[in-house]
Amino acid sequence: MTVKTRTLLKSFSLIACGSLFLTACISTIDRGDSVNGKSKTSSPTQVMAYGRFVPERSDDFAWENDKVAFRVYGPAAPLKGHSSGVDAWFKKVDYSIIDKWYEGFVNGISYHIDYGEGYDPYHTGISRGVGGSAVWLDGKAYAAHSFKRYEILENSGDKISFNLTYEWYTPLGIVKEEKNISLIMGSQLYQVESTFTLDGKPASLPIAIGVATHDEKASVHHNENTGRIAAWEVIDGKGVGTGALLAPSQLKEIKHTPSEVKDESHIWLITETDDNGKLSYKAGFAWEGAGDITTLSQWLLYLDQQAIK
After folding, report:
1. Is residue 236 situated within a structural domain?
2. Residue 289 in 3-state DSSP?
3. Which of 207, 51, 191, 214 is nearest to 125 (CA)?
4. Which of 196, 178, 211, 202 is nearest to 283 (CA)?
5. What stretches in the chain show pLDDT beneath 70?
6. What pLDDT does residue 97 have?
7. What confidence score (pLDDT) does residue 308 get?
8. What total of structural domains would you count in the chain?
9. Which residue of 31, 49, 118, 283 could cross-link 65, Cys pair, CB 3.0 to 4.6 Å?
10. How far apart are the C-alpha atoms of 309 and 304, rounded to whole Å?
11. CA distance 111 to 31
């Protein structure tokens, strides 16, 4: 993988996500979207699992398969109005759209408008979006701002797998999350395998996995037996289901936190990392416009069938 280094802002800032908390901005980032030394890019109508770093759009990282697409904000994203939540891009087509939509962005074509392939109407802002993580202390979420660096592990077409590194200040100390994210063909859900450290050492930490309710426009649903939380809302006249799954044995609590403050309403899976700082979960969404999962009952059934044993 080709590596380039960029020097970025080194100051610390207060960022809000359900509460006020400190987060550290990054100093370097590893760049590259090659696999085994070869460049990996999508063709206009290639059906595949795919992901890449997007320097042309504020250092986003985006990934997709034939069903869904996601995006997280990178180090060049403005501090205000952005955080480490996961954005959802709605697809009507099975072929890869990431490169095309970002190319359109560069040329003044908005991916917030549906031209027939889908679009991005989902608001993330400083929320957790679709399954973002945070340290959970005294009923408050302390989340990172954006990833510091990334590494693509697999971009084979059948699977996209990559690591994102987050590091931020919390009342407990400096928390670092090495987050491995993977997405395979045919799935509505991405898989997360995270390792957390506290002040440089593996630690058992209280963690919350959040699903935004968009200022309570979404209804919330949960099932302790399957470790599932879900939200269902209507965006531009079509239903959208979001959700996250945790092994029931790892579930401490499910908590719904409505708020009058924009982007702070969520439903949460409350858990704890093991002594080595490790945590696994799944998260994702389904959009009625894609035609596969079109009702709340279908979405809840799908999630429960994907339960982590």
Report:
1. yes
2. helix
3. 214
4. 211
5. 1-44
6. 97
7. 85
8. 1
9. 49
10. 11
11. 24
178 three-class SS: strand
Identify the pLDDT of residue 43. 60
Q: Is residue 136 part of a domain?
A: yes
pLDDT given at position 309: 79
Position 42 scores a pLDDT of 55
3-state helix, strand, coil in the chain (%, to 5): 10, 45, 45
Q: In the numeric block, which tokens belong to residue 137?
A: 């202390």
CA angle, residues 150, 153, 156, in degrees to nearest 5: 130
Q: Which of 269, 261, 282, 283 is nearest to 216 (CA)?
A: 261
Q: Compute φ and ψ for 264, nearest 5 degrees.
A: -105, 0
pLDDT at 222: 98
Q: How many CB atoms lie within 10 A of CB 193?
A: 15
Question: For residue 129, is it within any domain?
Answer: yes
Question: What's the rounded Cα separation, in Å, for the pair 190 and 62?
Answer: 12
Structure-token match 């936190």, residue found: 257
Position 235 in a domain: yes
